Amino acid sequence: MNPNRKIFLASGFALVVSALLLGRTRAADATEAPAPMKDYGLKEYVHVSKDLPHAEPKAWKLVCTLPYNCHYQAWIELEATADQEICYDSTNPLVRYLTRTETYRTTDGPQVHEANHWVSGEGAIYTIPAGVNVKAVKYRETGYDTRFAGSFECNDNDYNILWKKAARTAYLCMRDHFYDCPDRERVGFWGDGTPEMNQCFYVFDSKAHRLARDLVRRELQPKFYPGQHLEFLGEYGLWFYYLQSGDLDSMRTIYEPTKKFLFETYQFGNPHTWFDWGKEVKDTAVTETCFYYICLGTLKKIALITGHEADVAAIDAKRDAIKSTFDSQYWKDGCYRSAQVTEPDDRANAMAVNAGLAGPEKWEAIYEHVLTKKTYSSCFFDRWVFEALCTMGKQEYALLRMYNRYKTMIPCSFTTLWEHYDRWWASRIDAFDEGSSLNHGWNPPAILLSQTIAGVSALAPGWSIYQVMPKEAFLTSIKVVVPSVKGNVTVDLHKTGTEYAIELISPADTTAIVGIPKGSFSKLDSITVNGTQIWDATAKAGVDGAAKGVTWDSEDAGYVKFKATPGTWKFVGHGTLPLSTPKPQPPIAAKEEALDKKTWSASASVPDGIFPFSGGKIPVDVAAANALDNDHWTGWRDLTETQHPGQWFQVDMQQVRKFNKIVLDNTWALWDSPEKYAVSVSDDGIAWSEPVASGAGQLGITTISFPPQSARYFRITQTGTNPKYHWSIYELDVFLTK
């Protein structure tokens, strides 16, 4: 991307509305206390770039690594003369959109100081004047007062990483309300709030439910992204909240405003209606029709539980009018497509499935022609594509699509999920988006894996009735804990070639509907619970009374289902199960030692410089030394030219070291991977070996392996050409395999 690009396109619009949203009114604001916050106390950093105590004769920087992305305040103990200026910054440059660099003026002698304001990030930078002796540094973590109470773990660690990163992202985007991101904007979008609220019921304890209630009761703002209102006012927002919480009072409160918005306020065809970033092939006409239809269905259900039965006829009339003309308007050549687009949109076709407007007879065509061919949706909207695929029984492909789309986020060192897949600005400009957040609340893997793949979801308000209907596809084990309002629901699923076992711990005052998925078997013979047979393929029916507390429920094309009272149950399907997986598994990691970089120095073919971040609004240091400070937000970039042969980056390890692997991480500037490279070594920094390794860079993280070398210096030389992107190294690590 051109570093002089004017203003950050991905986010500039949001700052215009920040003041409006942060000062918004809510139905309950007049009586509610401030959101409860937790002080986790002073903590030690996991890494500091210099051994302390430390002082230098010139100004210097101390870069400190946190264990994960969090809200924190920097703390320092030092000795100085009076009137020296200490600067506190997050290593995340996006923080400076909202929070100016905080400074502290020293007094004379020993002293301790803590920053006054929280920022977010995975690292802190202290800028220290010459002569100041830094004795110790720490940080104070704060955050919304809730506990990580849910969990998900399966046999494929890629999905475990995604769940944990999604959970960390959700927590980072909670404070006084649900944020889109805590660094660049802190705006309470309804679109971002939908998956954030969804995940809070599957990840956190009941203290998080207050933020969900606030969002549900928040005054609607029809001029502010009305499409996002549609995304929230249906099954995914209002009705989801009611099923999780059983909060009937809130449904009574929001019914009339919701009805007014749907019946009077919302206008179809608004060119400014927003449903997704993603690619520009946006079939808004189909998408908004589907969401509107879903919202009407939810409005009908709320009408029936809040004493507004008289409205049902009018709601049904609107729904019937949509359904009766939907196919004739939009079904063309095996997919749904309006006149707005010339090719089908995966978002629009997924929503037709989710809304129930696309009948099962159309699913295979939608799957073949659209959902396996198009990836226009962003990581926000992809949750609805994922859910549509699972509704169609294509959960194997849904999991593969999730992995392929998140594959640059899974292995990277960042502990949160990003605003855009591959840091790629997907609307209007096909290019790396330097201004996009690396911790954005709209990422949904935690809800998708716990609710859809593990299959644990509420069927009746407040979890009085819930289901366990796994769609595990090629996964062979899943353990999930869902912190429902009735208590923890714990499911432990295991598959072998002959058994499909679901162990369930079901809380008091609930009824669980447990399904053994027939599609997981090539042949299902029988089902037992706690060792007693309750279903037989020959009889084709359940055996009532065989196990006290478990009764037959039903059987359909997908599942054999049973009702279970509270308690501990082990359902086992016996038969033949295929256990193959289409997903490649990562190689077994070798035992290796990372070399300590604290005393090393780095240089490059260009002088150290400044990266004019966000069109020059925020100057960011891109000195060569940044690639060795153990922080993946800070790095080296050659901004003098795009990639060309002869560029080099060199490291002096200060003494001869043995090593056989170098890892270049430029995840922050993902598309700045070296086009091609060659690695040489030297004992004196003057005479260099022939290349010990050469190859092409990989997107984000480039791993370079070679026969063991003993040398003091190594140099990486660019041998390729890329006319669009610069060369960056945001962190460099060196290893010796044992």
Structure summary:
The chain is of the alpha+beta class and 738 residues long. 23% of the residues lie in helices and 31% in strands.
Plain-language structure description:
Helix content is 23%, strand content 31%. The chain has 738 residues and is of the alpha+beta class. The chain folds into four domains: 12-16 and 146-453, Glycosyltransferase (Alpha/alpha barrel); 37-144, Jelly Rolls; 461-576, Maltose phosphorylase, domain 3 (Sandwich), CATH 2.60.420.10; 592-737, Galactose-binding domain-like (Jelly Rolls, Sandwich), CATH 2.60.120.260. α3 (190-203) crosses α14 (445-453), α7 packs across α8 (284-305) and α12 runs parallel beside α14. The longest helix has 22 residues, at 284-305. The chain is globular. The model is unreliable at 1-31 (pLDDT under 50).
Mean pLDDT value: 92
> How far apart are the first and last residues' alpha carbons, in Å?
40 Å
The chain-level structural class is alpha+beta
Number of strands: 36
Number of helices: 14
What is the helix fraction of residues, given as a range? 10-25%
CATH architecture name of the largest domain = Alpha/alpha barrel
**CATH topology descriptor of the largest domain:** Glycosyltransferase
CATH class of the largest domain: Mainly Alpha
Overall domain count: 4
How much of the sequence is in beta strands? Answer: 25-35%
Give the C-alpha Rg.
28 Å
Low-confidence stretches: 1-31
Main sheet makeup? 8 strands, antiparallel
Question: What is the approximate shape?
Answer: globular
